[in-house]
Amino acid sequence: MMNEFIQVLTIAGSDSDGSAGAQADLKTFMARGVYGMSVLTAAVAGNSYGIHDSINMPSSFIKSQIKDIKDDFNVSAFKTGMLSDSEIIRTVAEEIKDKPFGTFVLDPVIITKHGAMLLESEAYQTLIDELFPLADLITPNFYEAKKLSGLELNNHEEIVEAAHKLRDLGPKNIMIKGEHADESMDSVEDFVLLEDGQSFWISEPYVKTEHVNGTGDTLSSSIVAEIAKGESMENAIRISKTFTYHAIKNEIAVGHKYGPINHFIKDDVK
């Protein structure tokens, strides 16, 4: 009877306002019907107006958290989120290199959805060198895919080319999330390149709202949950895209400015 319930893990930072990071991951895990655990890599002091302070967890403490999860639980799939410096990235890579937690979804957290760089150059390269080769799926946003591929992504052809360039860095599957900064857009299109060479575009309507905090965290953690439940990579991505869209569309009034998306939503989601 022990460890029969589906278990998943996020290795990420803590957002004090609950809109993103490990908090968004754990809410998503619960919404998708799996038991979620967390290893915290950092803690952020922030609210809907912005981030005002942060602190990194010591590597020894990150190792202790991972060890305790390994020693007790049966994790089927996991993700990484914010890994803020090279030491933390190397620590996590060392602890997961033998894949003790099953399928690995890497949300790069390199550049914000508005194009602001989050990682210094050394940590950026360490992430590519140490973790990309271990990942079963990476989910870069539009700006991250631009930087990683060196392409401008001005059209579908360049996005497809970028996905192939990213797979050359080591990940088995690639999901390039579409740009959604232009309010004149009708839809947000993502491109997926699977390990077996198959690919597809997936689209949902663009939603004009300031409540988009934690969108990338929610998408990647939903994929983790669906894979742990037995879905294929393709189905997990499709279900998660739909879930994330509805979480954005059905916004909740929390905070004064840039708010969270709605993890309570259930309508039209498998």
Automatic annotation (TrEMBL):
Pathway where it operates: Cofactor biosynthesis; thiamine diphosphate biosynthesis; 4-amino-2-methyl-5-diphosphomethylpyrimidine from 5-amino-1-(5-phospho-D-ribosyl)imidazole: step 3/3; Cofactor biosynthesis; thiamine diphosphate biosynthesis; 4-amino-2-methyl-5-diphosphomethylpyrimidine from 5-amino-1-(5-phospho-D-ribosyl)imidazole: step 2/3
Which catalytic reaction applies to this protein?
4-amino-5-hydroxymethyl-2-methylpyrimidine + ATP = 4-amino-2-methyl-5-(phosphooxymethyl)pyrimidine + ADP + H(+); 4-amino-2-methyl-5-(phosphooxymethyl)pyrimidine + ATP = 4-amino-2-methyl-5-(diphosphooxymethyl)pyrimidine + ADP
Entry's EC annotation: 2.7.1.49, 2.7.4.7
Keyword check for Transferase:
yes
UniProt entry keywords in alphabetical sequence: ATP-binding, Kinase, Nucleotide-binding, Thiamine biosynthesis, Transferase
The biological processes this protein is annotated with in GO are:
thiamine biosynthetic process
Example GO CC term: the record gives:
cytosol
**Keyword Aminoacyl-tRNA synthetase included in the entry's annotation:** no
Q: Name one GO molecular function term.
A: ATP binding
Which Gene3D superfamilies did the record assign? 3.40.1190.20
Q: Sorted alphabetically, which SUPFAM superfamilies does this protein's record hold?
A: Ribokinase-like
Where do the Pyridoxamine kinase/Phosphomethylpyrimidine kinase domain residues begin and end? 15-262
Pfam families xrefs:
Phos_pyr_kin (PF08543)
Q: Give the protein family.
A: Belongs to the ThiD family.
Please state what the protein is called: Hydroxymethylpyrimidine/phosphomethylpyrimidine kinase
